Amino acid sequence: MITVDCLWRSPPTNWSLLSEDVHVWCTFLNQSTSRVQTLSQLLSQDERTRSERFYLERDRKRFIVGRGLLRTILGSYLGTNASQLQFCYGQHGKPTLAETSGGSILSFNLSHSHELVLYAITRKREIGVDIEYIRPISDFEQIADRCFSEREKNVFHQLPKDQKLGAFFNCWTRKEAYLKATGYGLLFPMDRLDVSLSPSEPVQLYSIKGDRSTVTRWSLQEFTPAYGYVGALAIEGHGWKLKCWQWE
Q1: Could you tell me the residue ranges of all domains in the chain?
Q2: Residue 155 to residues 14, 37, 189, 196: CA-CA distances in angstroms?
Q3: Which GO annotations describe the biological process of this protein (predicted)?
Q4: Longest C-alpha distance within the chain, in Å?
Q5: 63-110 confidence digits (pLDDT tens)
Q6: Residue 200 contacts by C-beta under 8 Å, 6 or more apart in sequence?
Q7: Whole-structure pTM value
């Protein structure tokens, strides 16, 4: 049984993450200058170097906030100095904690869009999260024709016009969450991944490369982190409990 609590609450004083727990954190990337400076002190030299590559100051600050808060949250769960955490990266760039930093204990994923960033954290199971800011896209129907499965396209094109943009982002975030959980990234053919997208459909992963048997390993969950955004989680296994926290 999956227990879902998608009300965005302030976190408790004492954090705990049990084996069946899945926690999703949400916060704004636009922070005060003093906050950005504090978070910058937590970054590794490699992360600071990456931050300097951004052309726009706004993007540089958002990168610092995103990585600094990731370190803060993970360090709090692990009882470890956030600046000492070390990360490693999978074949397609998926970040994980190094074994020496608790990689065998915590699994995490992050996503950002527009002004928000999400962190999804659990124990010893693969997890992926995606967030999208719902905005007009002039060619979103053409993108759907290229990236959606045949079943998805049939459902999508039968929807009323005023539901299509929302359905597009539903589909996109669910696919992205799964691809991030598995570490495939965009190298996986998106039209071979079949998910629900209509507002009237339960959130569901139907098939992977035409195979329905493998989807039983995964669970999908949608949520709304803030007005104008849509989010999705892909989590390995079942029987987990979702809680959503607002970082203040």
Answers
A1: 21-130+240-246, 136-225
A2: 45, 48, 19, 9
A3: lysine biosynthetic process via aminoadipic acid
A4: 52
A5: 999 999 999 999 999 999 999 999 988 777 788 999 888 878 899 999
A6: none
A7: 0.93
